[in-house]
Amino acid sequence: MVPALKAVFVIFVYSLSSGTMAQYYKFDKEKSSRKPGITPLKEAIEQMLSAYKLNTGFNESYLSAHWDKIMGHTIASRTTKVYVKDRTLFLQIESAPLRDELVRAKNKIIELINREMKTDLIEEVVFI
């Protein structure tokens, strides 16, 4: 298609039997767009989580489930437990040198997680 896509497309179907124009179809982009009052699925889920006050629990479980994506494979492979309780992230790291490095980088971990989650989910990190 041409980069400057127009709102109206015209499709002609050629009739073999008569050799004339058989049908005329007009596509109007404005009429086919989302109708007013219809909410996209993403917004509907966000509204449901807000209405039932499940945002925090959902974000905490998302953090635990996607720890590998957020912190990277190297840290995630040496992490045995990850859970959040009362805005505190609890981590069990099996490597002592890595745990020592992460203790020094607590503020950076908190900042990284809160930026990824787009909310202030974590206030403290505790290593168990």
Q: If you had to describe this structure to a student in words, what would you say it looks like?
A:
- With 128 residues, this protein is an alpha+beta fold.
- It contains 7 helices and 5 strands; from the N terminus they run ββαααααββααβ.
- The chain has a domain at 54-127: 2-Layer Sandwich (GMP Synthetase, Chain A, domain 3).
- The chain is elongated and about 75 Å long.
- β3 and β4 form a beta hairpin.
Question: Could you give the count of β-strands?
Answer: 5
Q: Helix tally?
A: 7
Poorly predicted residue ranges: 1-17
Mean pLDDT: 82
Give the secondary structure arrangement, pairings included.
Layout: E1 8-14, E2 21-28, H1 29-32, H2 41-51, H3 55-65, H4 67-71, H5 73-77, E3 79-85, E4 88-93, H6 96-104, H7 106-117, E5 124-127
Parallel strand pairs: 4-5
Antiparallel strand pairs: 1-2, 3-4
In short:
The chain contains seven helices and five strands.
Features:
single chain; 128 residues; alpha+beta; GMP Synthetase, Chain A, domain 3; 3-stranded mixed sheet; two-stranded antiparallel sheet; 7 helices; 45% helix; 25% strand; elongated; disordered N terminus
